[in-house]
Structure formats: structure tokens, C-alpha cells
Specification:
Blueprint: E1 2-10, E2 16-25, E3 30-34, H1 41-49, E4 56-61, E5 64-65, E6 76-79, H2 91-101, H3 106-119, H4 135-147, E7 153-157, H5 165-182, E8 185-190, H6 193-199, E9 202-207, E10 210-215, H7 217-222, H8 227-232, E11 239-248, E12 251-256, E13 259-262, H9 265-272, E14 278-283, E15 288-291, E16 299-308, E17 312-319, E18 322-329, E19 345-350, E20 354-357
Amino acid sequence: MIRIEGLRKEFDKGTVALEKLDLTFEEATFVALLGPSGCGKTTTLNCVAGLLEPTEGKIFFDDRDVTGLAPKDRNIGMVFQSYALYPHMKVIDNIAFPLKQKGVDKEARHQKARETAKKLQIEHLLERRPAQLSGGQQQRVAMARALVKEPKILLLDEPMSNLDARLKIEIRDEIKRIQQDLGLTSIIVTHDQEEAMAIADKIAILDNGRIQQFDTPEVLYHYPINLFVANFMGNPPMNFIDARVEGDAAAPCLAGKAFRLPLAGELAAKAAGSMGRAVKIGVRPHQIAVHDQAAPGRVPMGLQIVENLGKELMLSGLVGENFVRVTLAEADAERYRTIRQEEGAVHLELLHLNIFDAETGLNLAMEG
């Protein structure tokens, strides 16, 4: 288990990279640190690794305070974005290098390197040098080097950012398999939300050095705590439609340009406390049904673009002044394949929505 308490990192000239982070990573779980460039995710990883000294706060591995320990004393394996392989060494010596630093004799470290290479299916590459390897092969060598010393914790800093899209899928599956097989507590830094959702048990989303939300991929996707998380998670991104909470506490509704959506159940109770306030309705593109006819509770959209994405069709257009995307499964899309913009509006039924306060950005459905 890794526990971070009150972690703060300030660089020279008053630049604050991290501001009071509190996080706990459970034993044998895979956690992703996700966010845009400059949000603090790599700084967090480097503090856990011992490559950076925190300005404030503590880091524990289980109940052991490792805040002041050097990286070599933390029993970690680390994989870097650049792979950082030694070009003059053969693959077997690159993998075995951490054991050489520990004073392990050549025969023993080479044997361990061969065993580790077999796990990653690169045993046939051991006599080659890094320049003779593809990007995916180099990444596997870097992984083997991190794992050869049997670390308790595996840290990965954007390990797939230099790979093409197809190879990324292959490598991330391999990383997840190894993590599960070895039961390693692992942290990966990435700016790719699809990668984070595919590989991680839990995701910590950072912005401006602060944790925005830390939860499972499912919760982050369906119940984002604020507009930042909602907009960051998902591809295509969540749609946002301007509206206002109207009606009364007993029967609140969302009123927008040319539509009124009555609310019921728990969502109505949560929205009732924001009567009269401007909000943004958040809804995922695939959580919308499309109809030809207007009806109560449907939202009109002026159709502008129809895109054939193969497995699905994407309809895009305006709801009021908000650009909205809708994805339809192939079986439901036939009616709209040849539709033209001048044929007028389609009408949207929002099947699962979140409501965000326009001023604070907070999700009303998550409050209380």
C-alpha cells in the first residue's frame, strides 16, 4: 500500500506543482494519474519514486515512512517515457543492469534476465542491441529491466506515448497482465483517458496540482464530480447544454431554449436546492436516443453534420447555442445515413444526465 499525506511540491520562483495531495493506493492495485500537461502527475510520481524531494508532506509504503529515502532504497521498478536503454549494451545486459548495481554475479543476473525476458516474450531478442529493436520491443525491454529485481512497486511514466495506436493497445494489455500476475502495486502517469480507463483499477484526475476526483473508471465516467472531470473523461467528450432550474421544489424542471425537461426522483431532489440557478446539462453522446418527432421531454437539435464511423453513426448539431454530438449504433442509424441538414431538426431523448452548476462547476447529482 502507498499512502500520500499532505504532499506539496514548490519549485524555484514560487511555482507550486502540487498542493496538499492526500491519496491512498491499495495493495496490488493499478492506479493511473491522469490529467493535462502541467497538472502535477509526473511530479507526484517522481516524489513517490524519490527522484524529487517534497516541500511538505509524507509518503508511506505500507507503514514505512520513505519520504527521505533514496530511490535505490525504496524497492521500486520504474519505466520511463524514453525507455532509457543503454545503446552499447545487449538486451540481456540492459535487463540485468539493476542486478549488476546490486553486486549480483554475472551468471546469476543473466539467468534472472532470461527468466524475466520470457515473461515478456522477448527472450529471442537478448543478444540484440537497442538500435536493432522496434519501439514496442524497446518498451518490453524497459519493462523487463524494471521487473528483474522483483520490485514491490512499479512506476510507469507515460510508457506508451511513443507508440502507435495499435501497438499501444498491445503493450497496455501486456502491462496489465504482468501487474495482475505479479500482484504489483502500480502507478502509471498518462494524459490519455482511454489508456487510463483500460488499464487502471482507480484513476486520480489532477488539475493545477490538485486532485479533482479519485475513483474507479466507471464512477468517473458516469458520475464526474465537476465540469473539468466530465469534460476530460470520454471520447467523444460529454455534451453540455445550457439550462436553468425552474418550476418549484415539488416539481423542478430544466428549462433551456425550446425545451423543458421535468425531473424526478433523487435528481429532482438534488436540483430543487438550486432553483433559479443556471446549470449545464451533461450527457454522453451514446446516452441519447434520437427521434423524428417532437414530444414532451425531448430536446430539439438542428442537425448539421452526419459522420459514418463504421460501427456507429455520429450526428452533430446545435441545441440552442450548444454544439451536441450523438452516437448511434449501426442498427439504429439507418434512418439518418442519408439525412440532409435542410430536413430540419431531430429530437433528442436524454437517457442519463448529470447537472452541473454553471458557476461552481460542481455536479448537483454528487452533492450531499
